[in-house]
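The material for today's practical consists of a large collection of protein records. Read left to right, the backbone structure tokens trace the chain's path through space. An example says more than a description, so a record of this kind follows:
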Amino acid sequence: MHRLASVLIVCALSVPVVSGGELAGVTMVDQVTVGDTTLELNGMGLRKKLWVEVYVAGLYLESPTSNAAEIVSSTGPKRVVMHFLTNRATKKKMDAAWFEGFEGNSPDAYGKLEERVKKFAGFFGDMKDGDVVEIDLTPEVGTSVSVNGKSVGIIEGDDFATALLKVWLGDHPPTQDLKAGLLGS
């Protein structure tokens, strides 16, 4: 019996474990690398507008935490991944969401950020079901955006990266459920 238990333990330990988060049919890996830094999946949230599931977002950090203010003020690299779940995320709706998010969560800084917010919004067209956006926020480098694996541009300034994080983690996120999910709550 002791030998059987040992064999079962060895077999259980040798089974590969698929890890990561899963939400609304979207799976994200536990770790990603930005530059030379390994980041951990902090949390995943679902962006819904009325009854439409728009996207699943994942937030990657060096040191996972559920403290929004700590995340926004931290100086290390971060990644936000957005997996779109609908064909209803038109360019017009995306632009409106970005402008509302930046202005609503960084009203005092918005005047200084406005031209960069316009440039950032220009990186997005009509988003389709299955589109994936990766946004890397790298201090002193900028905020780089890739859509479906293709780099579409970089926005300079750590102040922009901070304001972008506030779009999801500030006082007026798209939804409280999305914010809570990204915080791992």
User: Anything to note?
Assistant: Helices lie at 2-14, 68-73, 91-105, 110-121, 158-169, 176-182. The longest strand covers residues 37-49.
